[in-house]
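Residues determine shape. We examine one folded chain.
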Amino acid sequence: MQGEIKTPPFSSIARIEAGFLLRLFQIGKKLKMPYSRPMPRIGSKCHELRINDASSTWRIIYRIDDDAIIILEVFKKKTQQTPKNIIEICKKSFKKYDNG
């Protein structure tokens, strides 16, 4: 996989929260609601991390493999449902990653 890595425009507090939650994954903790929820429409090990910022709500689509945490998409949540184009992008990217 290739692409550009960008830093989301989180506030400093939201950036600390995201970093803390991702660190919990690295040490083997499993998060549940309200921080994370499964995304079976994307894949069996895929989840959505929820980051609340001062003026926005962000989502990080990720998958936990045995040897890695794969962060695939970060987007600003604007509606109740995850946008279909985000779901399709994630499905295609994970398929490409798995066939690698």
Notes: The first strand starts at residue 36 and ends at 38. The CA atoms of residues 4 and 45 lie 24 Å apart.
